[in-house]
Amino acid sequence: MATARRVIIFADSDNTFLSAQSFNRKLDWQKIRDYLADPAEGRELIEMVIFVGLPPDRERFEEQRKAKEKFIYWAKSNGFLVVSKEGKAKGEEYETNIDIVMAMDALELALEVRPDIVVLVTGDSDFAYLAEKLRRRGIRVEVASVEQSLGNELKNAASNVIDLIEIFDSFEQQNNNQNYYRIGNANIFD
Amino acid sequence: MTFRNFTISDILKMLALTQPKLPKQTQTINGKLVGQDPNQFEYINSQMENLAQQLEQIEIQVVTAQQQDRREYINQLKLLKASVQNLEQLYNRLLSTTIVTVVVLTALLIWMGLIRQPSYNKSQINTTVIALQN
């Protein structure tokens, strides 16, 4: 019988959250995981790692930080491997540089575990080099994102692109009263 | 049944080489590489075909081995026959040589015996005469 392909998923939580938000959808990480590593499709999940950039421990970011901490707690208790990095305040905003952590962890884990497929759940072109590096090691790299937030460099660097629009369609709406459209697509859906 | 050219490990290797090679159906669905198992009926069918092929191969090899054994046996028989014939010739020659030698020797002995007998009598007479003169 055909053997299942071993899959590791690395997800940039902020990027994915923003993509879902642009479609006015609530993220359902479990559905994303089940979609990307469906045993019925001969794909066996080894691990799904979610990288979370935590807001700095300052009063003005307190609410955001609490929300993210809640999410981290939920993700950990639902079988996800969570890697978080505390950000630094930069003016009104903050930056975490979680993409560097994600790139390094992804490379290290992929080379240690030797999966058949690495799925990068992000559209950030900064990961294009990571995708290339992994491909050079004989690992298939699939990028899961929506077309609208997928950078060209990453698109070209990946072995294949998984359009998450289909799975986003099945997510709950963030605000039920608001009509929403597929960005970059003329068709109004639902 | 003996397999002169095929040991059990050879046959096992051969069987391993002819293991069912099912086409691993791979395709991408929305960019995802998916592997689909062939359905059970097709799988069993292909396995049966493979087993039948393996059986045929083994039969051919057994028949080939048997024929080779027979050929070798016949060759050995021919060699044995030739050497027995050689031995027979050698024996005949030896026998005839022996007979001739025995006949010649017998004749020689008889002839020698005939020559020696009169000289003995003559010397005996001479001795007697000398005794009387004294």
**What is the straight-line distance between the termini of chain A?**
40 Å
Question: Kindly, what is the distance between the CA atoms of the first and last residues of chain B, rounded to a whole number of angstroms?
Answer: 102 Å
Number of helices of chain B: 2
Query: What is the overall shape of chain A?
Result: globular
Q: Tell me the Rg of chain A in angstroms.
A: 17 Å
CATH homologous superfamily heading of chain A: 5'-nuclease
Largest protein interface, residues of each chain: A-B, 19 and 15 residues
Q: Count the strands of chain A? A: 8
Tell me the CATH architecture of chain A.
Answer: 3-Layer(aba) Sandwich
Order of helices and strands of chain B: HEEH
Helix content of chain B: over 70%
Low-confidence stretches of chain B: none
Instruction: Output mean pLDDT of chain A.
Output: 88
* Main sheet: strand order of chain B: 1-2
Q: How many structurally independent domains of chain B? A: 1
Instruction: Give the quaternary arrangement of the chains.
Output: heterodimer
Instruction: Find the structural class of chain A using helix and strand composition.
Output: alpha/beta
Molecular structure report:
The complex is a heterodimer of chains A (190) and B (134). Chain A is built from seven helices and eight strands. Chain A is of the alpha/beta class and 190 residues long. Chain A has one domain (5-169): 3-Layer(aba) Sandwich (Rossmann fold), CATH 3.40.50.1010. Chain A is globular. The N and C termini of chain A lie far apart (40 Å). Chain B is mostly helical. Chain B contains two helices and two strands; from the N terminus they run H-E-E-H. Chain B has helices at residues 8-17, 40-133; strands at 25-29, 32-36. A two-stranded antiparallel ribbon of chain B has the order 1-2. The mean pLDDT of chain B is 78.
